Amino acid sequence: MAQTISARCCVVGGGPAGLMAGFLLARAGVETIVLEKHADFLRDFRGDTIHPSTLQLMFELGLLDAFLKLPHRKAFQLSAWLGNRKFVVADFRRLPTLCKFVAFMPQWDFLDFIAGEAKKLPNFRLLMKTAAEGLLEEDGRVAGLRARGPEGEIEIRADLTIAADGRTSLMRESAGLAVEDLGAPMDVLWLELRREADDPEESFGRVAPGRMVAMIERGAYWQIGYVIAKGGAQALRSRSIDEFRDAIADCVPFLADRVEDLRDWEDVNLLSVQVNRLKDWSRPGLLCIGDAAHAMSPIGGVGINLAIQDAVATANLLAEPLAAGTLRDTDVGAVQKRREFPARVTQRMQLFIQNRMIRSVLAADAPFEPPLALRLLDVFPVLRQLPARLIGLGVRPEHIRLSS
């Protein structure tokens, strides 16, 4: 027979949104269970950007000093290269935050840190290797979920179930919530190549006719995102890996002496880009946040930022009624009212960049002039503060309102 346990709140998904929501709710006195289907957080090519707004949250929680002891690389600005010409796209050094940089940190280190802090709380419980399988419903309400862990089936009863299980959310599907697909003209191939001592010391992007490459400096290696037209991965993989090596070397010449490190296509991982959102983020007893509510394009690496901001708003708005056992459906709906505007605005900007810039670059077969936006950023450096705020802080950044 299934084991039955209960809590005020059960969070599905141990990613940035789920772990942060679970930590903040437990910190505010809410009995909380977080489910993570894997045995650990070690996943390659997850988003590794910790934005100034998240670093500000760490400060507000009194955790910044300990957090910054984790290995990370600081990026005070982000740049793009078109041919041999460099354009600074965003400069974070004037942001109204304590930390005026983006920290590149393996996501598993971030998640391990948050989980470690959460485990210090008596009302927090993290169940690893435990996969949610379906929702429990009673009288038209979500009353918890069914899960399977190392010791078998578990039935978890909860006043509120939070779906933070990503862009392919099983909880969202189980709830029958409709997803609006906004479209994406590209996918991304992720890979790693070693970094040499005389390589550039900053993360940047390189753009050439028909090619876009994102370069994230990770100390001993480069984490590389090679942008391709949507659905083009299968055709690309049908050709020789040598052609792909040549394409990387052509776009990023200083990598030419190490592209042979790519042994075969098994060293290349596909990210199928999705941009979508829910019309309704909730049902009675259920709330979706992060990618489960609004999948973001990788442009700007802002998906993690949006997810964490959702988690903070969730705790700010719901911790008190959850702890008191007085949670109403209108309380849960307030999270969407608070966070839908930032998600929509961010997606609108991403769609503009995708459709007006990235689509054109991928279709180009001859050299082209830099877009007007890049030329303006080059001529008027003060304008770089606008993308810095959008990337570094986001729209309507959240702050910690609840004490422990």
How does this model look, in words?
The protein is of the alpha+beta class. It has 11 helices and 21 strands. The strands form 4 sheets. Strands 1, 2, 8, 9, 10, 11, 19 and 20 form an 8-stranded mixed β-sheet that branches. The chain has a 7-stranded mixed β-sheet with strand order 6-5-14-15-16-13-17. Strands 3-7-4 form a 3-stranded antiparallel β-sheet. Helix 1 runs parallel beside helix 4. The chain is globular. The model has no long low-confidence stretch (mean pLDDT 93).
β-strand amount: 25-35%
First-last Cα distance: 37 Å
Number of helices: 11
Summarize the biggest pleated sheet: 8 strands, mixed
Which overall shape is indicated by the principal axes computed on the Cα atoms? globular
Average pLDDT, rounded to a whole number, is 93
Keywords:
alpha+beta; 404 residues; eight-stranded mixed beta sheet
Secondary structure: elements and pairs:
Elements: E1 3-12, H1 16-27, E2 32-36, E3 49-50, H2 52-60, H3 64-67, E4 73-75, E5 77-82, E6 85-91, E7 102-104, H4 107-118, E8 124-128, E9 131-138, E10 141-149, E11 152-163, H5 170-175, E12 179-181, E13 186-194, E14 204-208, E15 211-217, E16 221-229, H6 233-237, H7 241-251, E17 269-271, E18 276-278, E19 282-283, E20 286-288, E21 294-295, H8 303-324, H9 329-363, H10 372-379, H11 385-392
Parallel strand pairs: 1-2, 1-11, 2-8, 5-14, 11-20
Antiparallel strand pairs: 3-7, 4-7, 5-6, 9-10, 10-11, 12-18, 13-16, 13-17, 14-15, 15-16, 18-21, 19-20
Helix pairs in contact: 1-4, 1-8, 8-9
